[in-house]
Please model this.
Amino acid sequence: MNKTSPKDIFMHLLSIVTLYASATSFLILAFQYINVQLPDVLQYYYYSGALDMMRGAIAALIVVFPVYLFSMRTLRKEYSRDTEKREARIRKWLVYFTLFIAALIIIGDLVSLLYTFLQGDITVRFLLKTLAVFVTAGMVFSFYIWDLKNKAIGAKPFAYIASAIVIIAIIFGFLSVGSPMSERVRKFDDRRTQDLQTIQSEIVYYWQNKGKLPVSLSVMNDDLRGFTVPEDPDSKSGNIYEYKITGIKNFELCATFSLPSRNYESGEIQQPRGYGIDNIWTHKEGRTCFVRTIDEDYFKLRPTVD
Model:
C-alpha cells in the first residue's frame, strides 16, 4: 500500500487552504463591487471602506489563486504517476470536508434568499450577491464531486472557467478602485480634507477661548499645546490652505484638490447623510472653498476669569 508522504500532506493542505482563501476573496470582491455599483440607502457603509476591502481581495486573488492552480496541477501530475495516491485518506477527508462546507453554503444561501423574500427586502443587489455565493459554492461542489469519481476530464475546464471568472472579477475591481497612481493622488486629497477639518476645529477652539476669530492661521500656532497649522502635503504643488474672515462668526477655508471627492453628491454613490467628513467636505477638482458659520448656541464661549 502506498504511504502518504509529508509532501503529499503539504500539497493537499495547500490546495484546500488556498481554495478557501480564493473563494472568500472572490466573494468579498463581488460583494463590495455590488455595494459600490448598487448602493442601498437603507444601509450605512462607507464608500472608501468598500474600496479598501476590494483592494485587499484583489491582492489576495492575485497571489493566492495561482498558488491554488499550481497545487492542483502538481497533485494531478502525482495522480497520473501514481494512481493509488488518489485513494489517500487525507485527500478524501479534505475533499469531503470541502463538499460539506460547500453544501452548507448552498443551503444557507437558499435559506437566506427565502427569508429575505418573506421580509419583502428582495433587491437586485441581494439577488446578485446570492447568485455569486451560489455559483461559487456550486462550482466548488461540482468540481470535487467529479474529482471523487476520478473524472479528471473536469479538471482543465474547471481551471479555465475559474481563471476566466477570477480575471474578469479582478479587472472590474481595478476599474472600481482605480490605478495605484490615482489612489496616491486621492490620498493627498484625503490628507487635505483631514487638515481642513483640524484647522476648522482649531478656529472654533480659538473663538471659544478668545471670543473672536483668528486674524490669520499662523496666530493659532501654539508651542505650549504643540499645535502647528498643517500645510499642503504636496510641497511641490505650491498650493496653500487659505483662510478668510467673512463675518463676526463666519469664515472660509479653501484648498486646491487634485480630484473630485467620492461621495453621494458627486453621483458616484448615494450615501446616507450623517456624521462623517464626506458629508461636509464635498469638493470638486481644483480650488474649493468651504463656508462656515459658528453657531454660538452650540459652541459656547468659555467663561473668562477676571
User: Anything to note?
Assistant: The chain has six helices and three strands. The CA atoms of residues 18 and 67 lie 7 Å apart. Strands lie at 242-245, 250-257, 286-293. The mean pLDDT is 81.
